[in-house]
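User: These chains co-purify. Model them together.
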Amino acid sequence: MAGGHSDLRESVVFQPREGGKARPFAMALVDSTQQVLEAAMRGSWQRETALTNNIANADTPGYVRQEVNFESALQGAIAGGDPVSEMQFEAEPAPAEASPNGGSVSVDQESARLAENGLDYQSLTDVINTRNGIIRSAIGLL
Amino acid sequence: MGLFDAIGIAGTGLTAQRIRMDVTSENLANADTTKGAGGQPYQRQDVVLGEIGRAGGFSGALSGAIAQVGGAQPAGGVQVTGIVQDATPDQQVYDPGNPEADAKGYVKLPNVNTVTEMTDLISEQQSYQSDVTAMQTAKAMFTSTLGILK
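Assistant: Joint model of the two components:
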C-alpha cells in the first residue's frame, strides 16, 4: 500500500491557473488551500477596516473612499505561483461619484458592501472550520 | 493593521456624530435666544469633520506621520477638527411688543432655521446608526474568527 500512496502523490499535481508553476500535491496540515484561505481572511479583514473608515467619514468633506481589492491581488499571486502566506493588501483610493458635501461616500452602498464582506468572511471561516473538522476526524479527535 | 482597528474607527465615527448631535441640539435650544455671548443674538454653530491621519490640520498630519515612522499604517477614522460659527445674517422679525425690538419694531433673531436643524439631526442619527452597524459587523467577524478555535 505504501507504494500505492506514493504513486497517488506523484500523479496528483496542484495545477495553478494560467500555466503558473505546478507543484506536486502534498497532503499537509497547512496546504496551499489553507494559505489562500488565510490570505483571503486577511484581505477581507482589511476591507472591513477600509469600509468602516468610509462609513465613519461619510460626512467628511472631500474624503475619497478607499477599497481593498484583495481578490485580484490574490488571483494574480495564485496564477503566478507566488507564495500567498505573507501577502499583505493595501487600501487604495477608489473614487466614486461625488456627493453634495464633496465627499464620495454613499452610506447605503458602503453598508451593502460591508454586509457582503461580512458574509464573505463568515463563509471563509466556515470553510476553515469544515477543513479543520475533516483533519480532526482523520486524527481521531472527533 | 490591528485587530480592533475597525471597532476603533467606528468608535471615532460615533464620537464625531454625537458631537454633531450636541451642536445641533444647542442650535435648536438657542433658536430664539436674542441675547447670546456679547449681547448679540445667538449664532448658529457648525461642526467641521476631518479624516484622522490624512487630513485634519497639523495634529492629524503629525500623528499620521508618527504612525508611519513607527511602521504602522494610520488606523484612520474621523475627528471633529473644529466648531465654527455660521456667518449667515440674523433674521429680522417685526415684533414691536418684544422687549428686544429696535426703534422700528424689528427684533434680531438667531440665524437658526429649525427645519435645517431637524434634517441635520436625522442625517446625524442615520450616520450614527451606520457606524453602529459597522461596529456590529466587525464584532460578528471577531466572533466567527474565534469560532475557528473551537
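Helices of chain A lie at 2-11, 32-56, 70-80, 107-138.
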